[in-house]
Specification:
single chain; 313 residues; mainly alpha; 15 helices; globular
Length: 313
């Protein structure tokens, strides 16, 4: 089953003329920063990194790929262009397979096949899954974390793996915590031993992730920087995202979510009314994400922000 998304994603990694239409600057920014982090020390730093708005973890991932190419004396133009895209495609393919496994644990093999089919037919996933966006890695890590999420009435998941992957997603992009808030609260509410869950699972993973982020960013920026706090200030408190354009209050409901779902929108609406009660927490993830972006980050109108919640419906 894993061969299908792998082949599709590798084929989709071929540069197409319409691909730069959404956030065309983001892939170039990350790969350029990867070059800066590499031993060659060339590339261009945009203001997001000079001001400490974005963390260094995700670019460090690409920098390690570039370093490997340099050590192998294969750092020519074609390898520099293709390796990040193919690597991102393979990670997206892995997330698709894990989503299938998660759906199979929730229901049955037949339902999981339909989930798999819908994921492979999602035009928005095809459009973005091979691009070196922070949103892409956020979605991949969120989907991998979802595959370990413990659901009542199914095989037990792994809280440690789930939270570790979620923590990595938040380090790549702090907004990963938004769609996961209902899931974490739901898990905490249903847990009879709440204090051990908080003190022995939630808190250690959070502290390790934050500590690792502080150390990496200290090495990169040369000063102590709390990237997550800067991200919150710029996007929520100061609404600097409005500089890139804003939309009406209903944009996420009338255009953002329909664009992400595409032709799956009628089936999503149908599923909202037919979903079993035990699975409605996943519906709340989508609604919560839309509402938060509408109310808290209202000037940031970008359909990519809703993509990480696509795996829940």
């Amino acid at each position: 089953g894993g061969r299908v998304p792998k082949v599709f994603c590798e084929w989709n990694s071929w540069p197409l003329p319409w691909q730069p239409a959404t956030s065309p600057r983001h892939p170039a920014m990350l790969l350029s920063l990867g070059k800066v982090l590499n031993a060659a020390r060339y590339g261009y730093l945009t203001w997001e990194w000079t001001e400490g708005l974005r963390g260094s973890l995700f670019p460090l991932f690409f920098a390690s790929l570039y370093k490997g190419l340099q050590l192998l004396s294969r750092d020519d133009v074609q390898w520099l262009i293709w390796l990040p895209r193919v690597t991102q495609a393979l990670l997206s393919a892995l997330a698709d397979v894990k989503l299938y496994s998660f759906a199979k644990s929730l229901e049955d093999g037949e339902t999981a096949k339909w989930v798999y089919f819908c994921q492979l037919c999602s035009w928005f996933t095809w459009f973005c899954c091979t691009r070196t966006l922070t949103n892409t890695m956020e979605t991949v890590l969120s989907t991998l974390a979802l595959s370990y999420y413990p659901v009542e009435g199914t095989r037990p998941g792994s809280r440690q793996k789930c939270l570790a992957l979620l923590a990595l997603a938040c380090l790549v992009r702090p907004t990963a915590l938004i769609p996961w808030t209902p899931l974490l609260l739901h898990q905490f509410w249903r847990e009879p031993r709440k204090r051990p869950l908080l003190l022995s699972t939630y808190l250690p993973v959070g502290l390790i992730a934050l500590g690792g982020s502080l150390i990496l960013d200290r090495l990169f920026f040369g000063r102590w920087v709390v990237v997550q706090l800067n991200f919150l200030k710029v996007n929520v408190l100061h609404s600097l995202a409005a500089f890139y354009g804003s939309h009406p209050w209903h944009w996420y409901f009338s255009q953002g979510l329909p664009v992400v779902l595409g032709p799956h929108l009628p089936f999503f609406i149908h599923g909202c009314f037919r979903a079993p009660k035990r699975h409605r927490v996943f519906l709340s993830v989508v609604l919560w994400t839309v509402v938060v972006y509408r109310c808290a980050i209202r000037n940031r109108a970008e359909s990519l922000c809703l993509w990480p919640s696509l795996g829940c419906p």
